[in-house]
Amino acid sequence: MQTPLAPDVGAALAAAALAAALACAAADARPAAVPAAFLAAAACLACLAARRPPARRPLLEQLDSVVLAREYGGHNSGDGVAASPCILRSRAGPIIVTSDRVVEPVTDVHVSEDDGKTWRHASAVDGAYWCTLFEHRGRMYLFGTTGEYGDVVVVGSRDRGESWPDRTVVTSGGGWHRAPTPVVRHGGRLWAALERIDDGRNWAAGFSAAHASAPEDADLMDRGSWAVSEPLPFPNTLCRALWGLGGQGFLEGNIVVGPGRRLYNILRVNRFRGGTAAVLEVPEDGGPCRPAGFIDFPGGATKFTVRRDPSAPHGYLSVVNTLDGNALRTPLPNPLDLALNVRRNLSLSCSDDMLRWRALPPFIQTDRREGVMYADWDVDGDDIIMALRCAAAVGGAVPGNPKASNVIGFKRLRGYRRLLR
């Protein structure tokens, strides 16, 4: 279901009429022209106000529990103070959530022994950032970077996340970026997505897509076990020509085993208007990614996690930020549709073939300056469990914008397979 034309046409016409009315008033010095112009302006503002959605419940009331809440303190960055959530239902039983602190390269590990009702802080891992938490052969690992645009690092735990004594730095020279997206087993190897930043002056446009892999039976703490591919730059010139200022780059890739058991990387496209993802082929010999094209992808403007669930009616799933349900794109430009403001709705999205996606109606919708984003998720029986990056009003402190996250939240989507039928 696409966004109707009428609201955006109305908004565009109202904004144009408002600008024209004020310009006429400024250009016409006759006293009679001023009241008429302001009456027209008031009518336009009323038209815009009529488009506002109804008031929504506070974000904290829509979560099942709060994993972590942090105060902003003196940190005024629009990125907030808690980010990069990752969730794992461990084989030993507990649910484990990791997150980083944005302003320092530290990953916090949180454990729930009661299915997500309550949480305790288990450990803090210095020099670990943008990490994916995964289990392999009875041990837990963090795969991330040493810091913002640092080197690729793997950290290991032997006691279910209570301590992290093992550590190896895979690359040298820095310049690496990633997000908590899946570490995937395929073809006897473990695979994870990376991005290399080649031009620090141009965020996202300066990113190139890459991947790291290691044999499943290798010692993951041995630097020599890991291979990192040559990065593939974003086709910026062509996409900017097609998309205008919105064609800025791709990032935060997901390694996915696609149709025909072939390996792909599905990436967020940092586009002004959103709604697009990039698909790259991942050679199993570890070589550079190969472009496969761009797809319509609800929620493609912000970070997402793609996983495959063979038992679900539609096997490829994601939890995404959407605008008005299924559509991020509208017929006429609307500055309120920028990726920053898209972070107010969260939806389950599904696909049969990894290429054509459909988003369900949102199960979380926030109001005003609150936001929910960067959902990481895992299957827990009949449910999906999620760790969410949240910008939430806490103790009277209102986030400066929907990205200024201060809470890591937990949400359980019960009976999700029924929703997909």
Describe the model:
- By secondary structure, this protein is mainly beta.
- It is built from six helices and 27 strands.
- The strands form six sheets. Strands 10, 11, 12, 13, 14 and 15 form a six-stranded antiparallel sheet that branches. Strands 20, 21, 22, 23 and 24 form a five-stranded antiparallel sheet that branches.
- Strand 7 and strand 8 form a beta hairpin.
- Helix 1 runs antiparallel to helix 2.
- The longest helix has 23 residues.
- It is globular, with a radius of gyration of 23 Å.
- The N terminus is likely disordered.
Number of helices: 6
> In terms of per-residue confidence, which ranges show pLDDT below 50 for 5 or more consecutive residues?
1-26, 44-50, 325-337
Helical content band = 10-25%
**What summary fits the major beta sheet?**
6 strands, antiparallel
Mean pLDDT equals: 84
The class by helix and strand makeup works out as mainly beta
Beta-strand percentage range: 35-45%
Could you give the distance between the termini?
16 Å
- Structure summary, number of beta strands: 27
Q: Which of globular, elongated, flat, extended, rod-shaped describes the shape?
A: globular
Radius of gyration: 23 Å
In short, what is this structure?
The protein is mainly beta and about 425 residues long. Helices cover about 15% and strands about 40% of the residues.
Itemize the secondary structure elements and their pairings:
Elements: H1 5-27, H2 33-50, H3 59-62, E1 65-69, E2 83-89, E3 95-100, E4 106-112, E5 120-126, E6 129-136, E7 139-145, E8 152-157, E9 166-169, E10 176-177, E11 184-186, E12 189-197, E13 207-215, E14 227-228, E15 232-233, H4 236-243, E16 250-257, E17 263-269, E18 276-281, E19 290-296, E20 306-308, E21 316-321, H5 339-342, E22 345-351, E23 357-359, E24 364-365, E25 371-380, E26 383-391, E27 407-413, H6 416-419
Antiparallel strand pairs: 1-27, 2-3, 3-4, 4-5, 6-7, 7-8, 8-9, 10-12, 11-12, 12-13, 13-14, 13-15, 16-17, 17-18, 18-19, 20-21, 21-22, 22-23, 22-24, 25-26, 26-27
